[in-house]
């Protein structure tokens, strides 16, 4: 990208960002193709935000619902929604104010226009952290994710890891006491503790686990966005309908998880072993569905070649199950599997591209 | 057996103003210009000065590095103006045309008897040598190097492009002559035909060529794509390509001994009241068609000026109302300058006045609709994000993003490995069109080719 010429005000990027948010600017093409498609990154990003709305709405309701269950109250539907909304609002305020603040500042320093990427990241972060996360910790995590996860590489499009997952990983490693994924988080109830389905499964307490239907519908404790597989599937349908996310990655992630899951089932020594947990139940537990639909498919940090996408997705699914089943440290594996594959995506692509180069060289020799 | 090549990737941009098959008028341009900027990488050396009298076919400037490559005037008249830009870069040589064209004389053997050397020197002398482009790089070829083959695309799939079947139906003989002469220089001549029209195409009768039929949307008509599917260019390979209308002009030259640069040019686009064809001369002034402009625009575009493009809307040059037709161009496109703001543009659920290839809008619901497209960028410049989209409009076995990044990194080895020899700017035009990050991709490719030329020199 070209550096924009410095103009008078030091807030150019910020002003431009707000103006172009409200109206498409009057810039015309200078070089190359004279006409351009009306699709831009703002549109792409807003589709992802729209796709996140079902999980967001369900998350709000579920926060209230879980609070109600734990506290033993009898709240009405709207009371639950209102309670959840009030609980999640501060997280969103922190996420967007801190995140966008840093985005604007870095765009300003670089003299670029502000990237839209954080619209999505900021929407995702509150959905994948415990609702009880202290706001100052969240602010730290967001700052870490945006600065170290994204801006040091050059901003949206240049980052290696998914920034929202970097925020979560930061919480996970810096404040592990409340983040490992074995205890549930229920808002507004002191001293309430219980095990998540994943922790139950890890301990072989299959009978303590909620029913598969509840896990599928999402009426279980958990991070706001991850509990309801139904809401996530609606989001997936929106993403695929608008052609924003790659179906190859979603499908291969599921295939990878099922393949390893069934392999585990086959190897299970007895019915109470974690290995015996039906492979398909992994798909509706923890952050698997949310990760497969919204995180693994990030076009910047995933594999970029079509062949690479199959490998990348498959390995995410496979590693998630391996981490869940064979790792005694913590029950959830999705976050680390995606971050790991984010790291290796360029290597996968490198191999795919290298094969293309080899073919080209071979062709040259045949012709001579 | 004619080989049939099906291309799935690509896009026919549904822009309004497709030229209808009718000749609207013949234009006699008062001035014409020859523009050194039409020829990639050329450093011109003037051979005339203002006030000199020239004939059609007498040189105006030559290639500084290879003075035998001449660029000649398409008309007879007086050199009126030599236009220079920044750093005295030569931009245009303008010639005021005489009412009656006088042609420079060339003593040519009969086309049947001409040898390769005679043909080469005749083309060089007449200024028709630059009709040929060399791949890799898309530059005017070195006359001392013989190519592996010549590729000619018999159709143009670019938006609003001229229909060769229509404009060249009476030129088949000239084209045949040119092919016969080229066959002396290189035996292998490939000719691409369009699957939709090949049965009725007048070029079917051509002899001495190997036909290939291409089926698919734009860029199936791009000669680079055709080469990639017939016999891709490897390191050390060198092929020639010739625009079909220029091939007809070459044939005319060998048949008559005159440099007769008359062309039929398509005039199309949303700002043309009656899209069709005009007969004119190479290098004519676009002010001659200013009467064809209409004010039929969308509400948003009202009051916006017209952009005059010599060439098609993907790869052409914005020459302005008083600009001149480019040497290689056989279409003129008029679109609206998109200098307007669109409130909530990207946030509107439906944006029916605008077209999008992506399914983030609903253009796919109206596949037959044509759009009044304009030059608005429709967004701001960003880094590469939606990189999976390019492959959908790039029908070559090349990874476009990796090649572009190699160019940005100026990594010559990687560019070579990833296929820089097989592409020119126009092959990336659709990637640039659909790019939601609004990156000037053709400019990147151009830079890559410049780097390669410099490296290989």
Write up what this structure looks like.
The complex is a heterodimer of chains A (368) and B (457). Chain A has 368 residues and is mainly α. Chain A has 14 helices and one strand. Chain A has helices at 12-22, 41-71, 77-110, 117-128, 135-149, 163-174, 197-203, 212-217, 229-241, 247-267, 279-284, 288-295, 306-326, 334-367; one strand spanning 23-24. With 457 residues, chain B is an alpha/beta fold. In chain B, 19% of the residues lie in helices and 20% in strands. Chain B has helices at residues 116-126, 164-167, 172-185, 223-230, 244-256, 400-408, 412-418, 429-434, 441-456, and strands spanning 3-6, 23-26, 31-34, 44-46, 53-54, 59-63, 70-72, 77-84, 90-97, 132-135, 150-153, 189-194, 210-215, 239-242, 262-268, 276-281, 306-310, 317-318, 331-336, 342-343. In chain B, the strands form four sheets. A six-stranded mixed β-sheet of chain B has the order 1-13-12-11-14-10. In chain B, strands 2-16-15-19-17-18 form a six-stranded mixed β-sheet, with no helix packed on it. The longest helix of chain B is centred in the last third of the chain and has 16 residues, at 441-456. The chains are: A mainly alpha (368), B alpha/beta (457). The interface between A and B is large, with 58 and 76 residues. Strand 1 (23-24) of chain A pairs antiparallel with strand 20 (342-343) of chain B.
């Amino acid at each position: 990208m070209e550096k924009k010429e410095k103009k008078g005000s030091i807030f150019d990027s910020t002003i431009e960002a707000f103006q172009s948010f409200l109206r498409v600017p009057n810039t015309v093409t200078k070089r190359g193709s004279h006409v351009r498609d009306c699709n831009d990154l703002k549109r792409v990003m807003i589709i992802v935000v729209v796709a996140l709305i079902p999980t967001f709405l369900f998350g709000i309701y579920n926060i209230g619902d879980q609070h109600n269950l734990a506290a033993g109250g009898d709240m009405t539907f709207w009371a639950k929604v209102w309670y959840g909304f009030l609980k999640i609002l501060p997280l969103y305020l922190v996420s967007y104010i801190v995140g966008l603040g840093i985005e604007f500042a870095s765009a300003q320093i670089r003299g670029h226009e502000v990237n839209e990427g954080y619209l999505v990241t900021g929407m995702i972060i509150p959905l994948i952290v415990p609702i009880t996360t202290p706001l100052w910790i969240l602010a730290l995590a967001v700052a870490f994710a945006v600065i170290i996860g994204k801006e040091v590489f050059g901003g949206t499009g240049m980052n290696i890891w998914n920034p929202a997952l970097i925020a979560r990983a930061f919480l996970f490693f810096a404040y592990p006491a409340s983040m490992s994924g074995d205890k549930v988080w229920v808002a507004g109830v002191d001293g309430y503790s219980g095990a998540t389905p994943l922790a139950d499964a890890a301990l072989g307490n299959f009978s303590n686990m909620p029913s598969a239907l509840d896990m599928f519908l999402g009426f279980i404790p958990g991070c706001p966005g991850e509990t309801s597989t139904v809401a996530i599937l609606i989001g997936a349908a929106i993403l695929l309908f608008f052609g924003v996310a790659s179906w190859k990655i979603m499908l291969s992630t599921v295939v990878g998880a099922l393949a390893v899951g069934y392999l585990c089932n086959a190897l299970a020594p007895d019915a109470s072993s974690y290995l015996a947990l039906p492979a398909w139940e992994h798909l509706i537990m923890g952050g698997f569905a949310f990760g497969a639909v919204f995180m693994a498919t990030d076009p910047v940090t995933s594999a970029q070649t079509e062949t690479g996408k199959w490998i990348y997705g498959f390995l995410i699914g496979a590693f998630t199950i391996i981490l869940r089943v064979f790792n005694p440290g913590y029950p959830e594996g999705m976050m680390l599997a995606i971050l790991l594959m984010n790291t290796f995506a360029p290597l996968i692509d490198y191999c795919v591209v290298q094969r293309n180069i080899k073919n080209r060289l071979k062709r040259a020799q045949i012709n001579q | 057996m004619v080989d049939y090549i099906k291309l799935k990737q690509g896009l026919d941009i549904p822009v309004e103003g497709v030229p209808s098959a009718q000749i609207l008028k013949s234009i006699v341009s008062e001035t014409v210009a020859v523009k050194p900027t039409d020829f990639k990488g050329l450093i011109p050396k003037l051979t005339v000065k203002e006030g000199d009298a020239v004939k059609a076919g007498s040189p105006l400037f030559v290639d500084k590095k290879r003075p035998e490559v001449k660029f000649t005037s398409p008309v007879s008249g007086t050199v009126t103006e030599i236009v220079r830009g920044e750093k005295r870069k030569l931009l245009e040589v303008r010639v005021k045309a005489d009412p009656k064209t006088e042609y420079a004389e060339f003593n040519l053997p009969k086309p049947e008897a001409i040898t390769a050397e005679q043909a080469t020197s005749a083309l060089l002398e007449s200024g028709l040598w630059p009709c040929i482009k060399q791949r890799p790089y898309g530059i005017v070829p070195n006359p001392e190097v013989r190519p592996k083959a010549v590729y000619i695309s018999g159709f143009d799939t670019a938006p609003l492009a001229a229909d060769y079947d229509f404009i060249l139906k009476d030129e088949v003989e000239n084209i045949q002559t040119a092919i016969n002469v080229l066959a002396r220089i290189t035996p292998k001549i490939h000719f691409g035909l369009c699957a939709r029209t090949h049965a009725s195409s007048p070029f079917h009768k051509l002899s001495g060529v190997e036909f290939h039929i291409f089926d698919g949307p734009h860029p199936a008509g791009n000669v680079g794509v055709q080469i990639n599917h017939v016999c891709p260019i490897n390191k050390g390979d060198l092929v020639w390509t010739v625009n079909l209308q220029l091939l007809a002009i070459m044939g005319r030259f060998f048949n008559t001994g005159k440099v007769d640069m008359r062309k039929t040019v398509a005039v199309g686009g949303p700002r043309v009241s009656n899209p069709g064809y005009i007969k004119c001369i190479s290098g004519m002034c676009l002010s001659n068609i200013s009467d064809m402009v209409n004010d039929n625009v969308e509400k948003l575009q009202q009051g916006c000026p017209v952009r005059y493009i010599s060439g098609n809307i993907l790869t052409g040059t914005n020459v302005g109302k008083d600009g001149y037709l480019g040497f290689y161009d056989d279409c003129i496109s008029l679109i609206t300058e998109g200098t307007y703001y669109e409130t909530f543009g990207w946030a509107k659920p439906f944006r029916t006045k605008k077209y999008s290839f992506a399914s983030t809008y609903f253009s796919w619901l109206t596949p037959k609709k044509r759009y009044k497209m304009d030059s608005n960028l429709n967004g701001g410049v960003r880094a590469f994000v939606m990189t999976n989209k390019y492959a959908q409009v790039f029908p070559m076995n090349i990874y476009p993003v990796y090649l572009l990044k190699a160019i940005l990194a100026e990594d010559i080895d990687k560019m070579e490995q990833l296929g820089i020899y097989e592409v020119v700017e126009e092959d990336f035009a659709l990637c640039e069109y659909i790019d939601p990050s609004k990156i000037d991709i053709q400019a990147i490719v151009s830079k890559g080719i410049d780097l390669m030329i410099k490296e290989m020199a």
